[in-house]
Amino acid sequence: MELPFLEKKLNCARNFPAPLPHSFIEGAFAEHLLKAVANENDEQARVEAAQTDPARFEELYEANFDRVYAFVARRTANRELAQDLTSEVFQRALAGLGGFKWQGMPFVAWCIGIARNVVAQHAYRSPAECVLPDLGADDGAERRTMMLQAIESLPDDQKQVIVRRFFQQRSMREIAQELGRSEGAVKQLQLRALRKLRDFLRSKYE
Fold it and tell me: Among the four residues 90, 92, 130, 178, which has the most C-beta atoms within 10 Å?
């Protein structure tokens, strides 16, 4: 189903910097989460209304666009690609809305799950067009390349934690469950990996 309101919103998105500052991501997420908690009943009502009448999906789209676009933009190489993938995320969300079951979590969490899959699938097809977030994007392509090389050099367990934590935005609990480790063990793996990455960059730039 087409989203007639999508192009208008994406035109506004062209004013976003790419990639977005990490402080914006955290602020946008915190603000949206607080609103979702405060207006849980309203959001549930909007979801149920959209399941009955797809035209009502626009309300969900408008409420969640900024967070989803921010998530995608941090993981893509340019704004045009971020816009295309964000569009695909909401197309999938609308197509799968009938199967969505309200369980008290913000609707955006479900959308972010779709966004993870969309970005991961695109990264598999075109890895050069996707980037890990917060890994030197402000310092240009050379620094990103060095960081990716450093990540590839990590032991497999540390690499899995870094990718899940910073690329897929998994929680410590989710990573622990996926890897069959305790949360404490995962935190230690992340700490050791970050130290190695930091040492790697220092050796290159000092």
Answer: 90
